[in-house]
Amino acid sequence: MRAAAAILLGALLLAIPAATAPLAREQPASPYAAFLPSRGDTHMHSPYSSGTEPISALAAVAQQRNLSWIVITDHASAPPPGECEAEDTPTFLCLRGQEITESGGHVTALGIVTNLTTPSGGFTMGDAMEQGYQQGGLAFVAHPFVEPAAGIPYSYFGTHENYTGLEIYHGWAGWNDNPITTQMDELALQKWDALLNSGRRVVGIGASDSHNASHSWDQGDLFTRRGAVGYPQTRAYLREFSQRGILEALGRGRVLVTDGPDLEFDVAGAIPGDDLRVAAGTSLAVNFTGAANVSSTVRLIVNASEVFSQAVAAGPFSLSTTYTANGDSWVRAEVRSYNSNLFKGETYLAFANPVYVDVPPFDDPPSPPQNLRARLEGNDVVLVWDPSPSADVAYYAVYRAGTPASFDFTYRHARAYNAEWRAAAVDGQDHYYVVRAVDRMGHEENNTALAAKLTFPVVPGPNLLGVPLELANHSIASALQTVSYTAVRRHDAVSGDWLAYIAGKPSNDLALLPPGSGFWVNATAPGEFVIAGRMLPAVSLSLKAGWNLVTYASPSPRTLAAALAGVPYDRVEAFDATEGTYRLRAVSEAEVLAPGQALWVRTASDATWTLSP
């Protein structure tokens, strides 16, 4: 009977006209849906300093505890190249780091390439942190109140503050809020709030500081002040699963710190690390979803003050409230509970990083730096610029790409705290650079001024090369510092004469290689012609009737026909190392010119060749 009734009911429902059937309310997509959640631990030690377990064991335990990434941060030493990376899998990454250890405090540098110099003598903690930033890493103050007792902080607060953020939850036997501990985590949380209130965008992270992979998962080791791998953990919401994806999320503050609870919160769809611009007096919907391990309290904190709290039972929760934005503010969320166990303190906590709310007058990004340029120094490329005139600039974001059209301004390559950045970059590849100013609240301007480091192969014998950049020094010795040569010749189209530089000759009539010029160099060995300089926004070359030796000084590849549109040329030749007599070949109109390619251009009359980006 029940089966027959069900069939009849189904038939009746199917007979209801579609227009009268109730419509299911479509659930809005979570603002977190665009990101990949990840679990990581930003601070742990191996036998390269004071740890007891090899990196392979740390990685194995981390994966057993469902972490998707870790950072090895030994004292004064990054792991040897390749050892950490050997633990990488499609679902797990091991990042190289280092704990900068100094009597005034410790800082973890995450995602670095080589060892950072330990501060000593005239070298400061700020210098050490900047070394890490130069390599594309981040810097976080480690256990800022751990030594030697409550109230004794990282001693460089107010002095060396070019850190990305700080550890607000350290893996010393749970949240430290009981009679026998230093309350160091609570003090760190208070410092975090104070820094945010001062107008600085600093990121709060959690870290185990594990020294032994066998420590228990839920509480670490109280008596050695060490945590267990993954306790607590930093959950970062990634745009891509990669080292740069992890560093981008940590740097932007798209982060949750937890020892168990799940917590996702948004303010009118904005998630931690986001900026939200609204009119003053706007009522903003705040949503909390997650799961508590035990009976807990969900709290909303605005500018360091609690504005909402609600008790939740163990298990999943979904809450909402509203917040009226009457002024600029930062808004973060917490899950708090209390465990009365004397040796564990408060546990089962979660701290979401802030959403930043901006009301009129909206904060403008800083003014851009000016006069970006580049030079080679040995194997390094050095970028320099005139500082932004804005008083609130916190640092400069450095972006690097393989072509001018391939910049991704989501992922910062590095950051600089002075008007200079350097890196080992004589690597056989072309690199283009953009430098942007970022203020204390993370607002970034959007200039696209280009510098570049370009590389061209050199073969023994005559080579036709060019200078497509404005160099810091256009002298022969500086421009050709990476080439072994005996002679350089440049054709002057105006006079029709050849100018020459002969190595060892007391007097030469060729001294400079200006932007846009082409020249022959007689190389004595195979190698590379490497130059670094400013990419000019436009280059105008004066062409005389007849042959002109010039350079395609544009960052944009174009066909010969497009590049020379409007120029009365009838033949163009380019370098060919395989041609036996003249080392030249004809260029067809359909051939695509490469940035920096030297050319012989024959014109029927005088003309101006203007090259735009």
Summarize the structure in words:
With 613 residues, the chain is mostly beta strands. The chain has 7 helices and 38 strands. The strands form 8 sheets. Strands 1, 2, 3, 4, 5, 6, 7, 8, 9, 11, 13, 14, 16 and 17 form a 14-stranded mixed sheet that branches. It has a 6-stranded antiparallel sheet with strand order 21-20-23-24-30-26. The N terminus is likely disordered.
* Structural domains: how many: 4
Instruction: Summarize the biggest pleated sheet.
Output: 14 strands, mixed
Query: Architecture of the largest domain, according to CATH?
Result: Alpha-Beta Barrel
Task: Report the portion of residues in β strands.
Answer: 35-45%
Q: Which topology of the largest domain does CATH recognise? A: TIM Barrel
Low-confidence stretches: 1-26
What's the total helix number?
7
Mean pLDDT, nearest integer? 89
Provide the CATH top-level class of the largest domain.
Answer: Alpha Beta
Shape: elongated
Structural class: mainly beta
Q: CATH superfamily name of the largest domain? A: Metal-dependent hydrolases
Number of strands: 38
Radius of gyration: 30 Å
Distance between termini? 79 Å
The helical percent reads 10-25%
